[in-house]
Amino acid sequence: MQRMRDKYRLVIVNENTFEDHFNVRLSRLNVFIILGTLILILTILTFLMIAYTPLKEYIPGFANVRLNQRIIYLQNKVDSLTYYASSNEKYIHNLKLLIQGNVVEDTLLQNDENPAKKINYDTIEYHTTPEDSILRAEYEKENAFNLYFGQDKKLIYDENMASSVYFFPPLKGIIVKPFDPAEHHLACDIVAPKQEPIKAIYDGTVLFSDWTLPTGYVIIIQHPFNYISVYKHNAVLLKKQGEHVKAGEPVAIIGESGEISTGPHLHFELWRNGIPINPEDYITF
Length: 285
Known about the structure:
alpha+beta, Glucose Permease (Domain IIA), ten-stranded antiparallel sheet
């Protein structure tokens, strides 16, 4: 290490006059540090040039994503233009025939009327291949625990799992109008202070999040086991259609939007298998 720190002087002199033009004191350690810094700077600059400039397109293995997207777009455009050009040619040809007083040939009708060109779908035979059987088995295995409808069009699901779901209360407040199917009131109206957040009762996906004239800002969430929760008369919607929400996550702010609202409250509906159910049987408000 001591030898690395030994000082040396680099001198540049005029050979004829021995005049000193340039001199600098260096050590082995300084030379290594300077060279290492230069190499590091060159490496970083090379990386930045490759990563953020078009030079990377000339390196094997790097593809221009925008160019591929542009090619696909142009291919689709060409296909569309070809289709429209062919349609216009047929249209102009038929128009000329009509102007000349000739009969326009309906090729589709002729094909249907021609028995030789008709296809008898009753005689088509389907043969199951081994690959098809394997694919069917894999699909049935992956969807063994999913919801599906049977031949009687009734939903088939695990009743024990569906009944064991714990719902998060959407709002802490007072129920001023309970669930009453006889009065066509398929929800619970809950009153709470202004600016109170409304929360999702369970994990799910937002099916609808928008304004409606009678019920104002409405958000509808699809939950597992074919449960659907509906939140109406909101002041603000915090989630958009297609977003995934967690249980207890705020999705709206309580309000009185809509024509049929008489004050700040939440009109909360709970549906299961397409049938409205009493939220008080599943949630403690």
